[in-house]
Amino acid sequence: xxxxxxxxxxxxxxxxxxxxxxxxxxxxxxxxxxxxxxxxxxxxxxxxxxxxxxxxxxxxxxxxxxxxxxxxxxxxxxxxxxxxxxxxxxxxxxxxxxxxxxxxxxxxxxxxxxxxxxxxxxxxxxxxxxxxxxxxxxxxxxxxxxxxxxxxxxxxxxxxxxxxxxxxxxxxxxxxxxxxxxxxxxxxxxxxxxxxxxxxxxxxxxxxxxxxxxxxxxxxxxxxxxxxxxxxxxxxxxxxxxxxxxxxxxxxxxxxxxxxxxxxxxxxxxxxxxxxxxxxxxxx
Length: 284
Hints:
By secondary structure, this protein is an alpha/beta fold. It has helices at residues 37-49, 71-85, 99-108, 124-130, 157-173, 194-202, 204-207, 222-228, 241-253, 264-283; strands spanning 2-4, 9-11, 16-22, 54-58, 92-95, 112-115, 135-139, 182-185, 215-216, 258-261. 40% of the residues lie in helices and 14% in strands.
């Protein structure tokens, strides 16, 4: 299995770590700690040194209740960073749902569009269909960032997520997009309850679509904070490292091929142990 992107064909016989670069002043996880120019580039370089295979760059927070960022502001945050980063010859993913941003970053040479709306915004599909080879990550989201946690999903979340991802993938396939360009994300935390998020992880094999890889994005999520709460004290996002690594490993164990994380080194080290076990089992 592989993932075809603009410049790279990623071999998914092993899991890949996507390091998160937030260019937002209001990120839930780091509060804009790396949002400014040189700081963001230095942070990205550090993630690569720690073993990230892909950089996932975002310039608009999608935490629950976050307000939309104007197009001009998103581009102003992204473009200076990307002009430098695309020269590094590593896969670059941009987390955006705006078709104008998708077009601008793809014109610059970016490899992957990572869209929380799964290309449901007007014009988004058109941009991706017109591109010859960019990678695409289609994510499930219930409602929108402003309201998703005010009215969470009901019913069979595992079945509903599978049906949604099937429909979004099929919409692109019938327009000629190669399946090798597509990766799927269940959208942990995006309109789901804590229980529903863990159901999606526990039953990951049931909603995975045959032949297409899964990206898991549990890093520092509030559901981890919920299970770590002690005496009414919820740990801050930066205090959820061990839980984030555990969730990433559980996702990979259940078939995920990409994990999107803030804490790259710890995740890479854990996956090295996991890979050593897989090798030992194969050689037995």
